[in-house]
Amino acid sequence: xxxxxxxxxxxxQVVFPEPLILAALDIIDRENVVKYETISGHVYYEVAGxxxxxxxxxxxxxxxxxxxxxxxxxxxxxxLSKSHLMCKHxxxxxxxxxxxxxxxxxxxxxxxxVTLQHRYTNVF
Length: 124
Ligand SMILES: [Zn+2]
Hints:
Elements: H1 6-15, H2 18-29, E1 33-37, E2 43-49, E3 52-62, E4 65-69, H3 72-80, H4 88-98, E5 103-106, H5 109-121
The structure holds zinc ion (ZN).
Zinc ion (ZN) binds at residues 54, 69, 71, 73-74, 87, 89-90.
GO molecular function: zinc ion binding
Organism: Guyanagaster necrorhizus
InterPro entries: Znf_SWIM (IPR007527)
């Protein structure tokens, strides 16, 4: 399984509310962070949480937006009201990457296009 040191947890708690951290750790614990990788190196994540499965992108080059999650919390609390730095899915992805707890799945270019199109057209 995974381990997060007390020190790392403490540093997280300075920045993020505890329920958000616990929710993210719970997602990782259930191995619900799936990392999809194409041969060309395109990477995205699918995170299954209590409200369904959401697609997460990190390391984007879209000006001020460097990451994105398709869940309503991200859109309303992070992008619109700016009351949160990130949602639990995004935090789960970042933590999972740090501690190498992602479930990795290769994906074909065509499959990727279909999946992303489906995800993003259902967001708004
Ligand atoms: Zn989210």
